[in-house]
Amino acid sequence: MIPSSSVKVVVVGAGLAGLSAASTLMKAGFQHIQVLEAMSRPGGRVHTTRPFGQDVIELGANWIHGQEGNPLFQLAQEQGLLLEESGSAKTMCLPGSVTPRDYFFEESGRKLPMDQVDQVCAFFSKLTSRAFSSELDPKHSTQSLGGYLDQEFAQSLQATSKVGQRLFEWCKRSECTDEASSSLYEVSAVQLCHYVALEGGFFNSLGPGGYQALVDTLLDSLPPGTVLCDRPVRSIRWALEGESHAHPVSVLCQAGQCFTADHVIVTVPLGFLKENGAAMFEPALPTSKASAIERLGFGTVDKIYLRFEKRFWPDDCAGIQLVWDAGPEDEKVYQHSQSEGGAWRDTWYKKICGFDTVARHPTVLCGWITGREAQHMETLDERMVGEVCVRLLRSFTGWSVEEPAQVLMSKWWSEPFVRGSYTYPPPGVDAVREHNALAAPLPQPSDAGHSQEKVHFFA
Ligand SMILES: Cc1cc2nc3c(=O)[nH]c(=O)nc-3n(C[C@H](O)[C@H](O)[C@H](O)COP(=O)(O)OP(=O)(O)OC[C@H]3O[C@@H](n4cnc5c(N)ncnc54)[C@H](O)[C@@H]3O)c2cc1C
């Protein structure tokens, strides 16, 4: 057995998974570890910025979901990085004496009564909870989440009113943010029960250093030089044999630099693997892995930050939610727009759920957008996106809304080393099986029967 101190390990990707893997190996006595990161910064889908002054703006991950058994929560707690009052509510802004909550507006400019909003949202939440807790009737086993929700909603009292229907469509659109999907008709209803919600508050926020503080903690645990940025990996040869190969793995960077190793840990996003996985590995990945990469969904969620000179919303307003008369989540509207090719592009902005207030930024709003519309938005210029958002805010609220002083949006789909935001289970896909196939280590061909895996994946 080779002592761990002489084993060479290459980790591809310096997101939370890659950095955690490197840090854990270091603590276990491994010394020759090289982390290769394609981008010019570590962190990956954690991207903490400070575009509006000292306080942070998160372009990627924002909250730590769940507490018990969550290594990120544990690390953040040990390091004193958590915001104390965070936990169960998603509220992004906490003005002193009032209890903030979302304002819902219709296209006509009418503010919807809260009891009506609460009733529909509570009913929606009851239906999704059933899906998450595997209490779905077997008749829904092959259905999409959208199909199941529509069917159940159609039989409810709320479905008899126009407002009820419109609010229900808003709930579906908002759920697309959690699922990173273009539409809930792309998401499996029965597979959601495999999502394990950890005990403890769901929306745990980080303190003034934001998510980057966690990345920095992991970086600090590694010797200088362990992480190399601007090193996109082009190919991984993972079954080298014979005397000329002292190490069975060789990792080649785009610029030609080559790293040999005993093991490689691959933590690149599923979106990147979908585009490049077939060409990246030699020998090619086994069918189980290739098919997991193809079958699992990887959708786009983007944020649009608008900074205004003055706040124009009331103290108790935690967010401005947009309730359209029709679509885009209505199944008929969705399918019609698909059959018409690019027609949905003209109304891409209908996919913005609304605008939330932002912690520590009293004059900033954050809009959320998902799916193909988010991908389309990424092709537009920020000024134009800002103008569209202001038009929406003016027409829905009737308030006087000035042009934003700054607009900043994420572009996760356009990022060549990410290509999306996170994973979802499409209908008909066994998500647990595919995740396990993706995460399983690859053995050396000649090592069959031994536990000498050379390539390790983080799903
Ligand atoms: C908008 C958004 C909001 C989110 N909100 C939350 C949230 O609130 N809470 C939460 O828990 N999660 C959230 N997430 C998800 C969370 O950010 C990710 O699950 C997590 O950061 C993934 O970490 P990772 O290390 O697996 O992957 P990544 O962070 O994607 O790291 C992979 C790294 O691999 C690098 N890479 C890719 N290709 C190559 C290559 N060829 N060579 C070298 N390096 C390569 C990439 O550049 C990247 O740095 C959000 C994500 C997004 C996009």
TrEMBL record:
First-level EC class: oxidoreductase
Record-stated family: Belongs to the flavin monoamine oxidase family.
Organism: Esox lucius (Northern pike)
Keywords: FAD, Flavoprotein, Oxidoreductase
EC number: 1.4.3.-
Presence of the UniProt keyword Flavoprotein in the record: yes
One of the Pfam families matching this protein, by short name: Amino_oxidase
Residue ranges occupied by any Amine oxidase domain in the UniProt entry: 16-435
Entry binding sites for FAD: E37, A38, V233
MF terms in GO: polyamine oxidase activity; primary methylamine oxidase activity
The keyword Nuclease appears for this protein: no
Transmembrane residue ranges: none
Cofactor section: FAD
Name of this chain's protein: Amine oxidase
